């Protein structure tokens, strides 16, 4: 595709077989390019919001291993870091894949890995340093893996407070730091364990699937868990369930799904994509629907206009949904059967943006030139 111009919206789709880029001036017609890294799994990729021109892609490659590649010309050329993130030799741990890339509020770049680890780069992904206080957290040998392995899949910086950050690990739960990663604390209070009979999630397994901050009040965080949907504000002692209006998995009496996305501008507005349950990870009844709250989780409404209501027997993975920063907001969702659906009106209506892609691992967005 022609090089995107300043102000264009960019949508990134990382898949099981490469990376695809889409760009648009008006979000009505889209230009596409790719696949980049054809045949390799791209579990996550971002357009750096700080400059709106640098792409980072987390690649699992038979040739390179688990590495981060960088492009400053929208995929025309890529530079692979000299080495990927690594644990110490003494730990006996070896990185098998990178689950998450995130631009930190401190100006650094972060990745989350499997086995669960957090690593920081100060040179744009060329080299990586271990965040030791988390990676060698006391008791980590007791952390249980989730269905996808023991992975650190979510990194949530705090805008304008670079020393604060939350991370999510399946299935150890949520950890937070307020001192730039020097110390970490467990933040699972109020969550249900997904293991029957286990009543203390601070010591038992609890599986965060995704977290997102409120755009107007970043002290408020929304969470999609393996067992339920939650909200928590800074200073509160525990997470609170926010599930009114969401479909419930009867076996758990709780919603089940993976992504959690907040609106880029509107306070209290968030989106989830419920599935039937952990035993059958498909859209309920084969009908695709998203749910939106506009009141901080007090209630949820169903969104279906333009989405397939028959034969939608697919999953949306934890990084398979994102919002852009436009007004009205664009919402984008990718499926395990290779479709990407787009809304340019806050989720009220949808159109098929791309089809016949490999299994979509992640969807990310950005604005060329930042913003």
Describe the structure.
By secondary structure, the chain is an all-beta fold. 1% of the residues lie in helices and 39% in strands. The protein is built from one helix and 28 strands. Strands 3-2-1-28 form a four-stranded antiparallel sheet, with no helix packed on it. Strand 1 (9-15) and strand 2 form a beta hairpin. The longest helix has 4 residues, at 132-135.
Quick tags:
four-stranded antiparallel beta sheet; globular; single chain; mainly beta
Query: What are the segments in which pLDDT stays under 50 over at least 5 consecutive residues?
Result: none
Q: Cα distance, first to last residue?
A: 22 Å
* Beta-strand share of residues: 35-45%
Q: Count of DSSP helices?
A: 1
Strand order of the largest sheet: 3-2-1-28
Topology of this protein?
Blueprint: E1 9-15, E2 18-24, E3 31-36, E4 41-47, E5 55-61, E6 65-71, E7 79-80, E8 97-103, E9 109-114, E10 117-121, E11 129-130, H1 132-135, E12 151-157, E13 165-170, E14 173-177, E15 185-186, E16 208-213, E17 220-225, E18 228-233, E19 240-241, E20 256-262, E21 270-275, E22 290-293, E23 301-303, E24 321-323, E25 331-334, E26 340-343, E27 351-354, E28 360-367
Antiparallel strand pairs: 1-2, 1-28, 2-3, 4-5, 5-6, 6-7, 8-9, 9-10, 10-11, 12-13, 13-14, 14-15, 16-17, 17-18, 18-19, 20-21, 21-22, 22-23, 24-25, 25-26, 26-27
Question: What can be said about this structure in brief?
Answer:
The chain has 1 helix and 28 strands. By secondary structure, the chain is an all-beta fold. It is globular, with a radius of gyration of 19 Å.
